[in-house]
Amino acid sequence: MSLKIYINGELFDKEEAKISVYDHGLLYGDGVFEGLRIYNGKVFRLEQHLDRLWNSAKAIWLQIPIDKPTMTRAVNDLIATNQLQDGYIRLIITRGSGTLGIDPNSCSDPQVIIIADKIALYPAEHYERGLEIVTASTIRNHPAALNPRIKSLNYLNNVLAKIEGLQAGCMEAMMLNHKGEVSECTGDNIFLVIAGELLTPPTDAGILEGITRQVVMELAQAAGIVVREVALTRHDVYVADECFLTGSAAEVIPVVKVDSRCIGDGTPGPVTRDLNSRFREETYR
Ligand code: PMP
Hints:
With 285 residues, the chain is an alpha+beta fold.
């Protein structure tokens, strides 16, 4: 059975799921998206992802042509159709097809696309041994240029930093903001453990407010760990006891080396391992 893709209320075989080359999502990255996980046949934190999608769309003056209950039904129906127990969902809203100019007023038909597929997990050894990352020279988008809180289809900022990471032999790269502070990684939020406290850059450091980040902060608080959203420097990262990344795809993944410096003793630390198992429990509740 071929995987089905949802486009504007209709299901298509994967090979037949197509949109116009005049779509401004393709021509200009004009659109928004979400990446979600399915655990045990259920979508993890669907409501929060839909809220963020609708907020991203609002911020770019894009009207999503369906409402949240319709989107929820479409997502759940597609999971059932594609018979997924564990998997990944991509929600995409494009501006729709228009003329070759950037004026979004030429686009009249925003496209609603839902992909529900199996997930290609990172190799297990990265979770056991931890990741090595480097700082990219490409800084995160200035919030006054394109706010990182908007999960837009314009991901070139992240793609460039990702390439820098890959060229250094790393799967992720840390991005600084316009003030030189730590912001996040190309597709993940970043956390440090220093003196038993859990630290992560605040929203105004220019980050995507990760859903996984929020879940991990809540789990840490419930476990009695002090959680602080504070501006962090690269020096803070180098001298941290522990470091880990969070994201819908990555979940909770330890970082053991940053810019050739070992973090802590160079192995995943106890707080990271504890939060990782609490997160795993939460996803399968
Ligand atoms: N930052 C960026 C830039 C991202 O693209 C993502 C999502 N892949 C995240 C952080 C993590 O967000 P979430 O936990 O909501 O997946």
